[in-house]
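agent> call fold_tool(seq_1)
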Amino acid sequence: MLFTSADALEKDPGSPLKGKILATLFYEPSTRTRLSFESAMLRLGGSVIATENAKEASSAVKGETLEDTIRVVSSYADVVVLRHSEIGTAERAARVSSVPLINAGDGAGQHPTQALLDLYTIKRERGSIDGTRIMMMGDLKHGRTVRSLSYLLAKYEGIEIDFVSQGELGIGSDIKEYLQHNGVSFQEHESFENVLASVDVVYQARIQKERFSSVEEYEKYTGRYILTAANTEIMKPGAVIMHPLPRLDEIATDLDDLPRAAYFRQAKYGVLARMALLKYICS
């Protein structure tokens, strides 16, 4: 339903949310998520109130609790989008919000709307989500995007997942247990070369420097999983490369103009997916 709505909104967004207000409350840095939500609301005819650095430019500096902030902000808007560095904050906030609250990322926990737009990207690029074999590669331990995407992929038929990471950065046991419980086939690997030719989608994730306790620890893991135009020549025709962005060096710029490079289209699809979500929630 949301994807059908996203397709329709691309052709004719109209102004279904005229008079509605979106509040974006971000305690952690963001470019794409915050701006795409704000763009989505404006394209639907609504308005936006925003704070992009709530950790340092809100009453949190004065010691105000998250719950009190949400109680106040939710009285100003029709929907709140929250990003925070701590796992579980969205759930805490939703308990006290007087309006719908959207989780825009809670630390290394979840990023559900990114997963929504990732699924929409797969559908737009491949025509179908069912039967997709996807390789998720990089920092899977801290990567909230791969966690959320794994959860949603389990709702579809014939999904196969190849997790590629160094042992310490592997996918969490909770995700593996969830996939096993839902009958999703998955494998774990430490190298991608033998998997690359077999997958329909490569989902590349950066090594997240902000999640490590020291620069030395972070540098142990950088530079191992790098995609280039040369090493992706073995990919199947029609297979695509996705990335939630921002990227560092894990996707070489010589890939950017190739048809299989879907990551900038993915960002564009994100506006449409979030438009559909906001319309559903606020209408």
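agent> call fold_tool(seq_2)
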Amino acid sequence: MTTKITVDLCLDASWIAPVIPRGRLYTDCSLLINGDTIIGITPTSDVSSQYTPLKRVDLTRQLIMPGLINTHGHAAMALLRGFADDHPLDTWLQDHIWPAENRWVNETFVEDGSKLAIAEMLLTGTTCFADMYYFPEACAAAAREAGIRAQITFPILDAPNNWSRDADDAFHKGLQLRDKYRSHPLIEIGFGPHAPYTVSDQSLQRIATYAEELQAPIQIHLHETAHEIDTALAETGIRPLQRLHDLGLLTPLTQCVHMTQTTADDRALLKLTGAHVIHCPQSNMKLASGTCNAQQLLDADINVALGTDGAASNNTLNMFAELQTAALLGKLAANNPAAINATTAIEMATINGARAMGIEEKVGSLEAGKQADVIAIDLSNIASLPVHNPLSQLVYTGAGAHVTHVWVAGEQRVHNGALTQLSLEEIKINTHKWQNRMKGNEPPKNASTHIGERES
């Protein structure tokens, strides 16, 4: 008699898209999980004879896949969603966003805004996100409470800002935060130099040294607009990417955000150094910043991942919407309908994001031994039928609206479309509070007690 293996969790799905092997799709199979770890995939018909699941979930007509990875954003800026739409980038920043941040952003703003963002991300299938914003300790605390995986890069700018007096102050605070989360299983702290035009050579070299010693990630806005590059050329005679390379900042630890402007020399430098590109198509389109030719970069053997950027410049943190946009814009930029196909778009939102963050051995695909960061999407809805090609449905039919379940490291964070860890009602109350504060209005009556507690 064969001894059956006991497993904690068995997910029986109509389809499983593991991402690795590439393009593979399993039908009528089950994902087996023990604790926080994936055990493997087996035909559902064989489960009862081989395994004893302590919990079994029926996901008929649903597809399970790795959780999506949002590799760039400013989570707390969810509170600025729709605050200053339809302006050019410089006007948007200088006349609207920066003044609002100077007035309102504090630790409580970041905590509340981060929870709003995390709730949206979890409910639309994101299990891991990268963030760069003021008061990173507040974002890290929100991520810890929510039980979501996160890379928090603390912002480094030479000029004084809401969080730090200067770059030295940012290093001091950020490295303390890194020490605090050194052993946390879900949260990693890295370096977030804002951009080449806001950080000095001295600070960038210092970051390069620390990052190499600590093997910590670096995330930086880079080549976001043609104006940025033209200004750099006028002032220094070299392109920003080359400057970073000369300073030792371009390595496999480096995540280059936006990269809407690349030449053949830029692509050669990215490939040589192993630096990653974080593509934020919706934000770039909305601000008319430029187009990142993702297929061209991928063809040059450069890893390209996806990020939503902040909700102030995107309005949504739905990674399914982002990967759809990446696929559509990628075809247009390449003038080729076969560019950024469905398989590639899904990879950009999963395993490529894991590679960019240096955690591809943990997450990004449904492989035995990896962490159980898993999402389920209902494909029985009217907008997904008929299901000729489940992978195409994930990319082109607004799948984020149909996420039903989310697990992070084996712990369920969304059940039947509802958050299990965070209070949606509390998030809504705090969001209304900030909306009214920024408008100069009195807080909503139903939030008066809570607001008094938070502001005392």
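agent> summarizing second result for user.
The domain at 5-66+365-419 is CATH 2.30.40.10 (Urease, subunit C; domain 1). Confidence is low (pLDDT under 50) at residues 442-456.
agent> awaiting next instruction.
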